[in-house]
Predict the 3D structure of the following.
Amino acid sequence: MKVRFFAAAAAATGVEEQQVDLAGSVVTLADLSTLLVTSYPDSASSSTPPLAEILTRCSFLVNEVSTRDLTVALKPGDVVDVLPPFAGG
């Protein structure tokens, strides 16, 4: 599965994209969030909060479909976009 980070999430992780191997297991968006917080416990940017704090305000796209439902099941080949709130118009 591909996870893409945008805006503050990218700043907090220090990467724009990460491959996650699901190894054939059933994983939810909540499970993925826990894995990401474990993988990035500290912010890569001194001016950005850690990912754990940012994820509480994020919305997600799973295969280009918007969701905030953390019980959504994910599978290999999915693309998950992590979208913090954006400012501006």
Observations:
- The chain has a mean pLDDT of 92.
- Residues 4 and 81 are 5 Å apart (CA to CA).
